[in-house]
Amino acid sequence: MSKKISAFEKERLVIQTSRDAEKTQAERNRLGQFATPPALALDILKFAATLIPTKKNIKFLDPAIGTGAFYSALRSVFPQRRIVEALGIEIDEHYGTPSQHLWADSGLTLRLADFTRETASPEFDLIVCNPPYVRHHHLSLEEKIRLHRQTQKNSGMDISGLAGLYTYFLGLSHAWMAPGAVAGWLIPSEFMDVNYGRAVKHYLLDRVTLLHIHRFDPNDVQFADALVSSAIVWFRNAPPPPEHNVMFTFGGTQVKPNVTREIPTTILATESKWTRFPLSEDMVPDFGPTISDFFRITRGLATGDNSFFILTEDQVKAHDLPAEVLRPILPSPRYVYEDVIASDAKGNPLLERRLFLLDVRISTNEIKNRFPKLHAYLKTGKERGLEERYICKHRSPWYAQEKRPAPLIVCTYIGRGDSKRGNPFRFILNESCATVANSYLAMYPKQLLAAALAKNPGLIRSVWQALNKISVEQLVRQGRVYGGGLHKLEPKELANVDASELAKLIQGLEHSGIMKQMEIFEGKAGHQTVSNLTS
């Protein structure tokens, strides 16, 4: 070798920095190009060394090598004599071409190609990769079909069309692994919780031997330019033993984690949310009552363009819009300071920021004849191209809104765990006639709860208080987390949250034997209107 490893690494970092600077942040996000930090790459390869016999020679593969962070770390950890072959594949010449020159005499073969189209060669003993984090929105239908077929052929994984490109990389790589080979994947931890991640988890439990999953603390973002919570997944290309424990670690580094725990694969096979390990002490799946037993949960409405369809009082007056096509709507949670929303005599929420949803359900001709000012306002929307936008285009007429009765309780679905409240989520009692946009989850009582509320409307406060007794841990356990400690709850995830406190409350009022047979309660409030914009 003509250069020392440290000199190679310095030069590699110069290339990485300069090439990153030549692309916009948006472009690299779209292509899923997030370079592995040197310290993290070194930590990963040091851990890899603990999984490989000391004297075993290595054939190394990185399917998305970039400038070669993992190969550089490999050379720092393993003696050169043990690296008998090294192959890196990179689709982007922007990074691949200078990297070819850098590593030309190092023993690395760097191939400029699309890994997903390469012919597999099952000879590699160690695969380490930080695959491109390209979301499914940026993959064409034709690409998804091709990737799905090839991935299923290579690994048996039946990947959902909602999965990101990184899942296909993982599945395709199976055909490149020699028997007993070790693989380490630096990927978003969301696969451990979301529906599309089921195929990956089935593969890890059934096709290979899952060895170790290290999840970084979400507050310690590994990639400065990506809001993503990361995990390192290690497995061996060998059938899983009948009784097998997987090492789960959390926080710190992989070599020196903050929390360590072994989890039996029998538990993992029945658990939908793997991110609760190793922090959760509960090793038994919860089959008790859930929020879905009492509430139908849906996301708030998507207007198509909030700046056009959601108006302040001043905007309503300026455009002289009729009250009968307006509904009160709650502002963003950051403008709702209290957890109980009171209302005036007309049902308008008593909030400092008062907003109204434009919800028109009459024909264009009727609008033109009855409400010329409204007709003029809608015309400005058409001139802005709203009629052709995705959401509006799929409505008839384009300016009509989804039906969302005013929910009795709403839940904020995204927030940070380090907030002043200490809980990233809030249950808010809505005593007004206001509907909600998609910054909230709307909660509508199902039949049993609705019947109890019909007999005793004041019971809703006790229901709301019972929801607020749900621990932060239970909510976070069902949700998902992103880099920087950002937590999120989808409707189905909130529906799965334990509701034992609420069950106790209802059981004291009604017979509970039919809880699982409850039908969805459709609210009778109907389409609310605003008769007067003033309090």
User: Can you count the helices?
Assistant: 19
CATH architecture annotation name of the largest domain: 3-Layer(aba) Sandwich
Largest sheet: 9 strands, mixed
CATH class of the largest domain equals Alpha Beta
Q: Supply the number of structural domains.
A: 2
What gyration radius follows from the Cα positions, in whole Å? 27 Å
Q: In what order do the strands lie side by side in the largest sheet? A: 3-2-1-4-5-7-6-8-9
Overall 3D geometry? globular
Count of strand segments = 20
Helix fraction by DSSP (H/I, runs of at least 4): 25-40%
> Could you list the spans in which at least 5 consecutive residues all have pLDDT below 50?
511-535
Report the span from N to C terminus.
Answer: 80 Å
CATH-derived topology of the largest domain? Rossmann fold
| CATH superfamily grouping of the largest domain | Vaccinia Virus protein VP39
- Structural class, by secondary structure, is alpha/beta
Q: Taking all residues together, what is the mean pLDDT?
A: 87
What percent of residues are in strands? 15-25%
Written account of the structure:
- This protein folds into two domains: 5-276, 3-Layer(aba) Sandwich (Rossmann fold); 292-359 and 401-517, Adenine-n6-DNA-methyltransferase TaqI, Chain A, domain 2.
- By secondary structure, it is of the alpha/beta class.
- Helix 1 (5-21) runs antiparallel to helix 4 (69-77), helix 6 (141-155) packs parallel to helix 7 and helix 12 crosses helix 13.
- Mean pLDDT is 87; it is low at 511-535.
- It has helices spanning 5-21, 25-31, 38-51, 69-77, 93-102, 141-155, 165-172, 198-206, 265-268, 306-309, 313-319, 364-370, 372-383, 390-393, 447-455, 459-468, 472-478, 491-495, 500-507; strands spanning 58-62, 83-90, 108-112, 124-129, 177-188, 209-215, 230-236, 245-252, 257-264, 295-299, 310-312, 326-329, 340-341, 355-358, 409-412, 414-416, 427-430, 440-445, 480-482, 486-488.
